[in-house]
Structure formats: C-alpha cells, structure tokens
Design a protein that fits this description.
The complex is a heterodimer of chains A (about 210) and B (about 550). By secondary structure, chain A is an alpha+beta fold. Chain A folds into 2 domains: about 1-40; about 40-205, Butyryl-CoA Dehydrogenase, subunit A, domain 3 (Up-down Bundle). In chain A, about 60% of the residues lie in helices and about 10% in strands. The N and C termini of chain A lie close together (about 10 Å). Chain B is of the alpha+beta class. Chain B has helices at about 1-5, 20-35, 120, 240-245, 270-275, 320-330, 355-370, 415-435, 435-460, 465-485, 490-520; strands at about 40-45, 60, 65-75, 80-90, 100-105, 110, 115, 125-130, 140, 155-160, 175, 180-190, 195-205, 215-220, 220-225, 230-235, 245-250, 265-270, 285-290, 300-305, 310-315, 335-345, 370-380, 385-390, 400-405, 405-410. Chain B is elongated. Classes of the chains: A alpha+beta (about 210), B alpha+beta (about 550).
Chain lengths: ~210, ~550
C-alpha cells in the first residue's frame, strides 16, 4: 500500500476553530489567529482525566437520592435506580425503560466506549478503525440526551412547589449526574477522532 | 524532515487537566470523610409491634429536632416483638443514656386529652427522652405508652405501692390540698409481690412539698359514709370523681420529714381514714408463743402495752409452729402457738423513722430482761375477742429474747384468762369435794319428822269438835248482827239518843252566851250591864 496523501503528510495542519489549512510551521492561524496544532493538544490525557472525573461523579449520582418528594410532611427520597424500580412496580414500563436507557445505559455505555477508544488509540491499534470512528460519532451524538433525567428533575422542582402539600427538592445526585453528563461531553469533545486514523497512517508509512 | 514529526508526538508530560479528576476525588474523599466523621451511633430499640414504624421513613425526634431515622425494622429472635435499628446523628450521642426512653408518637385520644394530631399527616415518629444515667447504652426497650410527663421536665418521680388496684390509673392527677401538682405516669401489677406499683411525677416546684413523712392516699370517686352524725360525702376535685386521683399530705400530728430522693417508694393508702388508722410507716415484727388457747385472737387484734396500743397481730403462725415442733421433736410439752406481731415505734411517741425501730428493739431487749412479758387478755367478753398485752411482771421467771425463724421472740406468761380458768377449775374441784351425801341424809331425817308433824295436824283436823267449830262461829256472828241492827237510825235507842244530843246542844249554846258576857264584863254576875252607845259614822275630813 502506498501512503495516501493527508494534510499532515503534506506538512499542513487544520485550524481547530475555522478549519483553515495552514503549514505546520505556522503557530497562529493566518485567518482567525487561533493557535495551530496538528492534533488536539494532549487529547488522550485530557479525555482520560475527564473520564476519570466522570466516573468519580457517577458514584454519588447513583448512590444518593436524585430528588426528595415532600408529601404532606413525609419526605420520600428516590435514587435513579429506585425510581426505575418504582416505575416498573407501578406498571409504567415504557417510562421506566426511557429513564433506564438514558440515565443508566447511555452514561455508562458512553464512559466505557470512551475508555475503549482512548485505550485503543494509546495502544496504536489499527483494528476496526471505521467501527471505532462510528462509535465515537454515536457517543458524541447521544451523550447530550443523558441530560433528560436532569431536565426532568429541574422541571419538577420548578413546577411542583405546592407549599406543604407537595414539594419536590433536588438531591445531590441530580448535581453529580449533571456533572457526569457535562464532563463526558467535554471528554468526547476533547478526544481527537483523527488519532484513530493516525495509527493506520503510521502503519502504512512504516510499510 | 525531522521537524515535521516533532509536532505530531504527544508529550508524555502530565497535563494540567488531571487537576479536575483530582479535585473530584478530593471532594469525594472529603464528603465521605465528613459523613464518616458525622457518623452517628446506631442503636436498637425493642418494641412490641412495628405499629407506625417504617424503614427509612420514621424519624427519631428530641424536642422536635430530627435526631435520626429508622433504618430497619425486623422481628426479634423470639418472634415476640420487633427491633428497630435506628441511625442517629452524632449530636445525639450524649442523649443515649442508660435510662433514656423511647416511644412511638401517634395520634392518641384519651379520656382527658387528644395528642399527636400532627402525626396524622406526617406519620408516626419515635420520641426520645434523655435520661440521667450513664452514657453509652445502645440497646433500648421502647415504651408502649408515652410517659405522662414531658421529657426532661423538672420534678420528682416517686413510686407508690398499693395492695389493691383502686380506680387510680395512669394519667390521673396528683393533688396537694386539692391543687393539681402532678400526675400518675404508670401503673403496673407485679405478680411476684402481688402489689400494684404506681409511678407518679410531682412537677417542680411542688416536689419540695414531698418529704419522708408525707402520706399518699386515693381520692378517686366519691366516698360515702354514714355514722351517728349523719351521712358524709367526700370527693376530690371534679376530675378525680370521674378519672381518679392521688392526694398527699403530712397527717396531723406528724412532724415534717426529710427531703426524699427520686424514685422513693411510698405506700398508697386507700383513703385518708385509712391513714388515720395506720398513721405510721415504720414497724417491726415480733413473735410471741403461747402454750394456751389462742381462741378469740384474730389477725388485726390490738397489741397493747399497759393499755396503749403499740401494734397489731399480723397472723397466727400455726404452720411454722407445727414445723418447729416436728423438727425439734418436743414431746409431751404440747404445741406452743407462735403469733406474729407488728409493732410500730411511732405509736410509742417515737419519731416515725427507720432509726426508731432499732431504738424500740433495744428498749424491748432491756425490758425483757427486766420482766417484760406478753400475755393474752380478754378484750370483749361478749364476742370473746382477745388481744396481746405487754406488761412488766417483776416476779416472772427469768427469761431473755430468742429467735423464731427470722423473728425475735418475746417470752410470754399465762394470761389472766388462763389464770381465771384455773381458778374456776379449783372452785369446781372444791365444790366436788363437799360432803354432799351427809347433808342429804340429815335433810332426809328432817323431812321425815316434818312428815310426822303433818300427820298429827291431820288428826287434829279430823276431830269432831274441830268440825263443829264453823257452826258455832256462824251462830256467834248472827247474834252480833242482831246487836248491830238495834243501833240502826230507825231503832228506838238511836232516836232517844239523838234527842238527848240535841238538848245537850241547846244547853251548850246558852252556856256559850254566858261565857262571852263574863269574859267582856267579869262583874256582870254582880252588876247590871251598861249598854254601849251605837257608834256614829264620821265624815272624812278633806
């Protein structure tokens, strides 16, 4: 296989902001003035660090109650999984599934996917680059939907405030869960998907 | 072109981005550490039922501040109760004392109050009432009923015992001179001592009214008594009529006592009259054994010292006496009957205190050496009731105190009754010894001679002359009648006698006129009388 012509091969780097191609020797984008890098700066380290943060935040998000329902003086605390189980017991299976998918499967799946991507890039693995690229795109797209849970809680807290009759207060898990979602989104953002392909390019150039 | 590749390589240096997970970690560790630092104690409270208790829901409160939450409710190992595992805040640590009490607060409707209505909406909670004992207890037994007194209220908690459950029950008032100063918190019948135990609480500052000489009595309901003075109705306050109550006070003639401690035990008298009958709290037991009949001696019979009542007969210990006779094998002597006496030093004008018992015992000990003896005396000849009397018998056989079972015994001498018995016996013996046969013989002789006399009298009566005697008597009487009839008004003799008397009467009248003339003018016999001019009435001068 002959090496395909890439911007990097040609000594060109893309601006992160305006995507102008400029020679790597240039430190500032000739168009917008942003700092030029061939690849995102410290991409893997940043992604990994943010993933670890997200993992740490994910622990209280699941263990602590996400919201408190004060009904006629008696307070009831509900965690994410507690709420899902309660909904299943009440027979609202579709809603339970929605919450389960977006609050449990998506964030955890996203974390695992990102860890996998970082790991493979670190190992310079050339295998399944196309699938990995696809995983990355899905992850980036679906990640923001995890905020559904946080939005539900915020809306309930804002709307249901009936004095002593029924009051809903957010729990500490709502904050940490929002943290998990935001941090994983930033992690996905700081991951440079071109690194997946760089491995293949390297292999090719070595051949 | 080496320069082209130099920019591609990822630096191995640590990026500043690692500060973010580090920060998250530090925050997490801090939170965990803080939670661990504030980790409160975990306690277990045993209840009869889990009524109102919900896992993770039911709070523990003290002065309406949340102190913790019930984490788990489970059955105990014997399945006869439940155990609530409670996670408490750290600040509750000093409240967990030996006698800290817990109870479930739910809405309750009592005869005199409704409480805990707020729990209808919020659900039941466990109330904590800190005690005063040692800190560090972790296992508690919850109360089934809330105590009547708010937790930590100042005052005095006392124990009352009564041998019968009157109408006093938990929640009733405690009165002092008719004023409400406390309440009955709890009542319990203890089958082992067969006494009803009441726990009462006197609010501050009225607890100062309680001293060691006060008496408690039942003022529940209405007491009706009838005597020579008429009917008498006694009641406490209105609520004691319906719900019962306890009153206390120092009985008349009793000195104020010392201050009392918490949980001091008092006796609950059934009425104030009961106190007047049994005004003393302290007493001691003695045993006296009699070798004679104890007929008429009943439990409650008075024990007197020279006529002053000093106690009463508790019971006749026949069973124990039999036991003793059997074990000792005292043959031929006969069974002596021990009698248990209850003697109160207060009745001997000694202060009604624990120490007076020792003083009394010492006095008795010395007294016995100097001839103090117990006797049985007759109290009421009609009913045959007897009582125990103590007195000094200087000529009594020397004796000292001994013991019977755990009691001290006082020697006895045969009572006056028994002595009387003996005298009557002696008298009957004497009567028995009289020469009755001789007497009867001489009496018979006398009767025979009497019989002879009677026979001769009969012969006199049978005589002819004796029988004619009535006829002669009759004739004499007839003659006497004739004589009398001659003297009747119609007879001649009577009329002549009458005329003679009339002429005598006239003569006497003339004689009287002469006598008067002579007394006024003694010379009238010799000289002619001068007539006295008639008096002339005069006009009264003005």
């Amino acid at each position: 296989m002959t090496a395909r012509t890439t911007a990097a091969n040609s000594g060109l780097a893309s601006c992160h902001v305006c995507f102008k191609l400029a020679p790597t020797a240039v430190h500032r984008c000739p168009r917008c003035g942003a700092t030029m890098h061939l690849r995102k700066n410290d991409s893997l380290q940043r992604t990994l660090a943010l993933l670890v943060t997200a993992c740490l935040l994910y622990i209280p998000a699941n263990l602590y109650p996400i919201m408190y329902t004060e009904q006629l003086g008696s307070t009831e605390a509900s965690t994410i999984m507690g709420g899902v189980i309660l909904l299943i017991e009440l027979g609202s299976l579709p809603i339970a599934m929605v919450i389960f998918v977006f609050s449990v499967i998506v964030p955890s799946g996203k974390l695992m996917t990102m860890f996998y991507l970082v790991w493979t890039v670190e190992r310079h693995s050339p295998l399944g680059a196309r699938q990995r690229s696809m995983m990355y795109r899905i992850t980036e797209f679906i990640g923001k939907w995890s905020m559904v849970d946080v939005f539900v809680v915020s809306i309930l807290v804002a709307l249901v405030h009936l004095g002593g009759l029924l009051v809903i207060r957010p729990g500490i898990a709502a904050l940490s869960f929002a943290g998990v979602v935001i941090v994983t989104m930033i992690a996905a953002e700081s991951f440079d998907s071109r690194l997946i392909w760089d491995n293949i390019e390297e292999k090719n150039s070595e051949n | 072109m080496k320069t082209e590749h130099a920019d591609i390589s990822q630096g191995r240096k640590f990026s500043g981005i690692w500060l973010i997970p580090l920060l998250a970690l530090v925050l997490g560790v801090y939170m965990v550490a803080q939670k661990w630092m504030n980790e409160g104690p975990e306690i277990e409270i045993a209840f009869m039922t889990a009524d109102g208790l919900e896992q993770g829901e039911t709070k523990v409160k003290y002065r309406n501040v949340d102190m913790g939450v019930v984490e788990e409710v489970r059955l105990n190992d014997a399945f006869d109760g439940v155990i609530a595992r409670v996670k408490l805040d750290r600040q509750a640590l000093p409240l967990l004392r030996e006698d800290t009490r817990f109870w479930v607060v739910t809405a309750r409707v009592g005869v005199d109050s409704i409480s805990g209505l707020d729990t209808l909406l919020s659900g039941a909670y466990i109330q904590l009432a800190p005690g005063t004992g040692e800190i560090g207890t972790r296992y508690f037994t919850g109360l089934e009923h809330p105590p009547q007194t708010p937790a930590g209220a100042p005052g005095l908690r006392l124990q009352l015992t009564s041998d019968r459950a009157s109408s006093v029950s938990a929640g009733d008032t405690v009165l002092y001179k008719g004023y409400n100063v406390g309440r009955v918190e709890n009542m319990l019948f203890n089958p082992s001592d067969r006494l009803v135990h009441y726990e009462i609480f006197i609010d501050a500052p009225y607890h100062k009214l309680v001293n060691s000489s006060v008496r408690f009595w039942d003022v529940s309901g209405v007491s009706l008594s009838a005597d020579a003075g008429g009917f008498k109705v006694e009641t406490g306050s209105v609520d004691t009529v319906f719900f019962g109550g306890v009153a206390f006070g120092v009985p008349e003639g009793v000195e104020e006592g010392d201050e009392v401690e918490q949980q001091t035990e008092f006796r609950l008298y059934t009425s104030y009259d009961d106190i007047l009958e049994n005004p003393f709290q302290y007493g001691t037991y003695y045993v006296v054994s009699f070798d004679q009949s104890v007929k008429g001696l009943r439990p409650g019979a008075p024990v007197e010292f020279r006529g002053i009542q000093i106690g009463k007969v508790e019971r006749i210990m026949l069973k124990e006496g039999l036991e003793k006779t059997r074990t000792l094998g005292e043959q031929g002597k006969g069974l002596s009957i021990p009698v248990l006496l209850y003697v109160e030093p207060g009745r001997l004008e000694l202060p009604d205190k624990e120490s007076s018992i020792d003083a009394l015992r010492e006095t008795v000990r010395v007294g016995v050496n100097n001839g103090l003896r117990a006797t049985m005396a007759s109290g009421n000849l009609l009913t045959g009731a007897t009582y125990i009397s103590f007195d000094f018998f200087p000529d009594a056989r020397e004796d000292t105190e001994s013991t019977f079972m755990e009691y001290t015994t006082i020697p006895t001498i045969d009572s006056g009754l028994a002595q009387l018995d003996q005298k009557v016996n002696a008298l009957l013996d004497n009567i028995n010894a009289l020469p009755l046969a001789d007497t009867v013989t001489s009496a018979n002789t006398a009767l025979a001679s009497l019989n002879q006399n009677l026979a001769s009298l009969q012969s006199i009566l049978d005589n002819q002359s004796t029988q004619q005697l009535p006829a002669q008597l009759d004739q004499t009487l007839q003659e006497l009648k004739d004589v009398v009839s001659n003297l009747s008004p119609n007879s001649q003799a009577y009329q002549s006698l009458n005329s003679s008397l009339l002429s005598l009467n006239r003569t006497m009248g003339n004689l009287e006129t002469l006598t008067r003339t002579l007394s006024g003018q003694p010379n009238a016999v010799l000289l002619p009388s001068t007539p006295v001019p008639d008096p002339i009435p005069e006009v009264r001068k003005k």
